[in-house]
Amino acid sequence: MPPIPLLISAGEASGDMYAARLATALKKRLNVTLFGMGGPQMRAAGVDVITDYSEVSVVGITEILSHLPSLVRAMRRLVSEAAKRKPPCAILTDFPGFHLRLARKLRPHGIRNIYYVCPQFWAWRPWRVRIVRRRFVQALCIFPFEEAFFGGAGVPTKFIGHPLVGAVQPTQTREEFCREHNLDPNQPIVAILPGSRHAELAQHMPIIREACQRIHEQRPAQFVVAAAAHSNVNELQSGWNPALKITVVEGETYNALASADAAIVSSGTATVEAALLNAPMVVIYRVTPLTALLAKPLVRTSYFSMVNLIAERRVVPELIQKDFTPPKVADEVLRLLNDARAREELRSGLAEVRRRLGPPGAVDRAADAIAALLSGVTGNT
């Protein structure tokens, strides 16, 4: 039998990571060839990436307008390739603004859509869950409360747990990390995860640089900036006061977080990674004022960061939009650096978050669910 073609798609860095791990797990179980949209991690996992996610990875309602031509090109390319290769299923990873439309265009070709890492509709425009019910044959959820939300709306749903549980581990001790990067293990280390998209960096880095200057003036510290992609490195290295000790690392995010006394983390998957590594953090995020104005009526939760949403209470400080200022970032980081009790209280909350994320093995459970569905579609075992 020839291998089964499968379309797998991710629209940003965290989705690329999740989809790459799933691709590897699927190849161990099935005779498949994988193609679709993704990035370096999916390529390394053997996926034929016909559209790079950098073409479509944008943040915010207003920012999408300037990227419409590239979004349309990517959509057409994926649909055209799917029509040629005729996969029985498409596995779409989060990124709902693009993937909901892609799912609609794939269905006329007889392709069954699976949502892997479901979009956070319980927090943002919850009525869109009806679209998932119409266009997807299965939703694989990574948070326990999502099973009730999607299942209650009539979506065939399976809770798999979070793919990062069991996978997020440092490879170095603090002493080893410091030795490699010429850092002093006896001096405070502040890890900075500013985001992966250029639009995020443009919004975040000027504020972060000024905040770090304020922190250093009151408590001399070493700042380690974790680049999400190689293309970000030059941007992250520029604009700093030469008096600050700045180290930009690539591919060492987990070591940086595990070695940090405090962290400044852009809201998103990185906050879950920081929680799994027990890193005391301050969560930050900002979009353009117009995007924030348009989005405000659509938000349905009291919290913004994944950590607080999972805990259903304020575990980590959130500095979002107008609250994301250099003085407030500096104050929160200094509180964590100077107050051992504050650090331990925050870490106690992170332990609760880790308990709620489920056991290891989420990617294997997702691969098993997809293999079972494929068996029913293709008649193969």
In brief:
With 381 residues, the chain is α/β, with parallel strands linked by helices.
Tell me what the structure shows.
Strand 4, helix 5 and strand 5 (112-116) form a beta-alpha-beta unit. Helix 4 packs parallel to helix 5. The protein has helices at residues 13-29, 40-44, 61-66, 68-85, 96-106, 129-135, 144-152, 174-180, 198-218, 233-237, 253-259, 269-276, 289-295, 306-311, 326-338, 340-356, 362-378, and strands at 4-10, 32-38, 48-52, 89-93, 112-116, 138-141, 157-159, 189-193, 222-227, 245-250, 262-266, 281-285, 318-320. The chain has 17 helices and 13 strands. The protein has 381 residues and is of the alpha/beta class. A seven-stranded parallel beta sheet has the order 3-2-1-4-5-6-7, with helices on both faces. Strands 10-9-8-11-12-13 form a six-stranded parallel beta sheet, with helices on both faces.
Contiguous runs where pLDDT drops below 50 for at least 5 residues: none
State the distance separating the first and last CA atoms. 12 Å
Structural class: alpha/beta
**Mean pLDDT reading:** 91
Radius of gyration: 21 Å
Topology overview:
Elements: E1 4-10, H1 13-29, E2 32-38, H2 40-44, E3 48-52, H3 61-66, H4 68-85, E4 89-93, H5 96-106, E5 112-116, H6 129-135, E6 138-141, H7 144-152, E7 157-159, H8 174-180, E8 189-193, H9 198-218, E9 222-227, H10 233-237, E10 245-250, H11 253-259, E11 262-266, H12 269-276, E12 281-285, H13 289-295, H14 306-311, E13 318-320, H15 326-338, H16 340-356, H17 362-378
Parallel strand pairs: 1-2, 1-4, 2-3, 4-5, 5-6, 6-7, 8-9, 8-11, 9-10, 11-12, 12-13
Helix pairs in contact: 1-17, 4-5, 8-11, 9-15
